Prior knowledge:
By secondary structure, this protein is mainly alpha-helical. Among the domains are: 8-56, no CATH class; 78-121, no CATH class.
Amino acid sequence: MSFGAGGTYTSAKMGGVRIQNWSGAGGLQPSLAGLSRADKDAAVRELARLERALVTLHHEPVPAAAPYHVPLPAPADREKIRLNREKELLANINFFKFTQRKAAKDLARRYATAEAARMDASQPNNTMLSPGKRRRSGGC
């Protein structure tokens, strides 16, 4: 830490021992000088342990990635498509125009079959992601 007077002061506590250093004109001397040899050795061992912990932190084992199951998309609901299309087509046809209504219902049925097949074909093939399941065919 610098106090702006041209010197820096450093203080750390390791293994119960406080180490201080003042660099600059007339600064403090390190307090390790007054310690016994055993205390100095303990401080060095603690410092080495801390350094090892910092250097080997990235060596911790990481669990291996496991493949995950991606559910297959549901096949297109042909009946729902047919009902929606039939409703659209019949909205403009008089109730008593039986032939036109029958033709509209037939057109809605063919449209639903084609649209469901198109939707199923546009979905990605997930057989590689979940080998235990097979995609259902587009039938009713």
